[in-house]
Amino acid sequence: MSCILNISCISVVWNSNALPTGNLYGSFRHYASYDQCLKPPWLHTHPQMKTKYCFTDFLLSDESDVKTVADYDPLGPTMEFINSPSPSGLPVNHIMWGICIPAVCSSNAVSKLTKVMYESATLSSIASDVTVKHCQEAGERAPYSTGYYIFIALILSLITTAVASTCYRMYVSSGEESPNSLKTIITKSFCIIKNQEDLVKVNKGEIRSMNGIRFLTATLIVIVHVVLYIVLSGINNFADFEKQFEGIGVSYLHGDIIVDTFFTMSGLLHMRGLMGRQQNLFGVLWKRYIRLIGPFAIVVFYLTFVSKHWNSGPGWYNLEETDVCEKYWLRNLLLVNFDIKLSCQATTWYLPCDYHLAILGTLIFYFYQKKRQLGYTVFVAVLLLSMIIPAVLTYWLNFQAVILLDFGKHIMNYRDTWQFNYIYTPFYSRGSPYLVGIAMGYLTTIYKPGVYRKCVPKTWSIIATAVGVCAMLFTLSIAYIIVCRGYDPLEAAVFVGTKRILWSAAICCIIGMCEYGTVPIVSNMLSWSAFTPLSRLSYGIYMVHPLVIQKFQLSQRSTHFFDFYCILYSTVGASVISIGLSYAMWLFVEAPLINITNQLLFNKLNGPVGATATNGTQHRNGVTKTKSS
């Protein structure tokens, strides 16, 4: 069958394709008729007419013609508009188009046919070669690998073990068996009833205000990533989306600093765990690794072997997570990857960053153990370096103070945004909030909130909390200040060097006033009992919510319409499902793994001495420990 000359094929191709529309309003992705192409009614009766869906990429003008500043003239030529970037830097001349063609066509034929079809229909020209990103034949399915069946078997085994252990613990008395036997350790660790109790239990000495802050932070991160994946999968009214960042709205682009709240609390809990008792510091780091790796390993396993079978839709064609996971899964699981291009998910850069900061915090504590003054000196030196290094890199490489200020430039190929690998994902770029958390953890261990509660007068508590909130708002408004004042390299360096420490100090100030003072409404709200289990599920929420968002957003057969109700609707749905999956992750993966690690390593190395309880479960060295008595 001739790809170009067969009249019936050309008829199928033409009727299955929808020409790109709305690109002048910022719509750069166009999906055409995905299901019509891949599921024709004659697929099995006329296999010689099989088609395939290809996602292509091309430019309407040369890169050299694109302007750096928009030039909109309604009386001027169309190409002047096409060569003008959008306010966020989105190249209007860049088109991604899904087309339906005969299955026998080669990639070269796809490229030529796409160019002919577009130019003949629009009476315009394509300046570049057409790049074929991905093709999928009608009726084609990826074969199920051994890894797929292993993943399914693993999940079923974990659930079965948990159910069997729960039934066993319900009918067997603890006094009837050896506490150190393997059977006892496994059944206690997997007991659903016990793990459920640990999830909702309020322990003495925990910093309850952190529960609300942690869950609210997780929710804000879900909102940010809902917007991220809507943008990545295409918005047909992108110009309306950009208008939200005009004026003071540009402060939204600094929302990436929200994740520094997690680093602050991680440092706080890590130091409280280190100072809770004398222990082997290598064991500390091993348990921290185990704490992080359980849910992450499930996510990596899913992305590598399962995701491609459970997800479909044209939005997935520009997502490289499965391919990246297949190549670099070991590097990701060892937590040594800082390159966003090699990350299994765009959001998992947090894990190696957090773990390396845990190593740094443990080293500082080691020097503190040797000599207190030496520990203080090292802490101050590292804190200064954590501010100086990002500032110097920003000045030297001429970065913006807010890396997302020109987000439109990075949408189509966000993994190739090399700036992220210098001042966004490395551990030294997030060192200052973690170190501020360490300082707060040290203070709350020396001056226990339970002993010094309400020692700060109510008036000063309210004033300090208000100052903390204002500091956070000021940090978010840096983007607006930069836009108003214009870019200055030195100012950008100063902002980058100080903004994270200011944010984390504000967070610690609010926590401190809620614990040591009296802050009406705020303290009660953040300490609400419902936040206790939700806080402990926050790590699981962080790990699974991108999968939930992707499943919905990237499976759409058309680009999205942006408005705040759509964002709210998607956020609520993603949050609820993520909480449910995180709850399952806690019962069947997180809690059992932590329990087994503590039983096999911690108890044998350190004996049965209790540890300081913080935030609902016992935190030793910043690692959650659930009792399995």
From TrEMBL:
Gene Ontology MF terms in the entry: acyltransferase activity, transferring groups other than amino-acyl groups
UniProtKB keywords: Membrane, Transmembrane, Transmembrane helix
Domain of life: Eukaryota
Residue spans crossing the bilayer: 148-168, 213-232, 252-269, 289-307, 349-368, 375-397, 459-482, 502-526, 564-589
Domain Acyltransferase: 208-584
Start and end residues of each Nose resistant-to-fluoxetine protein N-terminal domain: 18-113
PANTHER family: O-ACYLTRANSFERASE, O-ACYLTRANSFERASE LIKE PROTEIN
Name of the protein this chain belongs to: Nose resistant to fluoxetine protein 6
Organism: Spodoptera frugiperda (Fall armyworm)
